[in-house]
Amino acid sequence: MKPVTITEAFDFLDAWNKILGFSTPQHHKQIMQFLIEIFNNEPHRGLLNAFRHSGKSTVVGIFAACVLYHNPQTRILILSAETNLASRMVAHIKNILENHPFCEDILPDVKKEWGTHKITIKRPIGIREPSVICQGVSGNITGMRSDLIICDDVEVPNTCNTAQKRNNLRERLRELDFILSPHGTMIYIGTPHTKNTIYQTD
Predict the structure, then answer these.
(1) How confident is the model at residue 82 (pLDDT cuts 50, 70, 90)?
(2) How many Cβ atoms are within 10 Å of 48's Cβ, its own excluded?
(3) Which of the listed residues 98, 147, 166, 167 has the most CB atoms within 10 Å of its CB?
(4) Which of 14-28, 131-145, 154-168 has maximum average pLDDT?
(5) pTM of the model
(6) What's the total number of domains in the chain?
(7) Hey, how many other C-beta atoms are within 10 angstroms of the C-beta on 158?
(8) Residue 196 forms part of a structural domain
(9) Residue 179 contacts residue 145 (beta carbons within 8 Å)
């Protein structure tokens, strides 16, 4: 993957907010900078915990669209506790791609894959997987290959309210290493829902 500079990411973020009639909050720039640093640098693993309604998912969607703009060959998997949660992120990314002034040239001429659960932009031929696809954490991910995996709210009350559920979730998430491409990026975003959160790093 070609690195995305902080300046390029901020330009993309500011241009999107300008369309919406907003200025960019400082903490959104801090979130974007964190995401770009994870994307650009080894080991390409990151955890973004932030308070509810901080806009973390909003910025992550803009980040994903920015990565696609600079690297159209990127394959992105959005994984959430349930497929309908993940599909909200796909819809967010799709909306950005359709309306961001930078992205006009990567919109497909024929939108064969431009739906609720997967989208494919204009990119080099020969890539089998969609540009963005979503899945619930209990769904079938066998055989997938991804360059960027975004685990968006995989920990929710229904997946973490018992020790067994947390163990099952951790075991399931270990499978992601087998579908991530070499030098691929994996980012977790969410808010802890239990004192024994899976987001603990110690």
Answers:
(1) confident
(2) 21
(3) 147
(4) 14-28
(5) 0.92
(6) 1
(7) 10
(8) no
(9) yes
Q: Is residue 72 part of a domain?
A: yes
DSSP code of residue 116: S
The size of the chain, in residues, is 202
Q: Which residues contact 42 (CB under 8 A, 6 or more apart)?
A: 183
Structure tokens at 110: 């024929």
For residue 83, give the CATH number of its domain.
3.40.50.300
Q: What is the pLDDT of residues 59-68, one digit of tens each?
A: 999 999 999 9
Provide the 3-class DSSP secondary structure of residue 45. Answer: strand
**Average pLDDT in the chain:** 90
pLDDT digits (tens, 9 = 90+) for 125-141: 889 999 999 999 888 88
Q: Is residue 31 part of a domain?
A: yes
* Residue (of 16, 5, 14) closest to 103 by Cα position: 16
- Give the domain extent around 151: 6-190
Q: DSSP for 152-193?
A: ES---HHHHSSHHHHHHHHHHHHGGGGTEEEEEEEEEEE---
HSE of 181 in the Cβ direction (CA atoms, 13 Å)?
Answer: 12
For residue 9, CA distances in Å to 16, 38, 67, 69, 104 come to 11, 13, 9, 10, 17
pLDDT of residue 193: 59
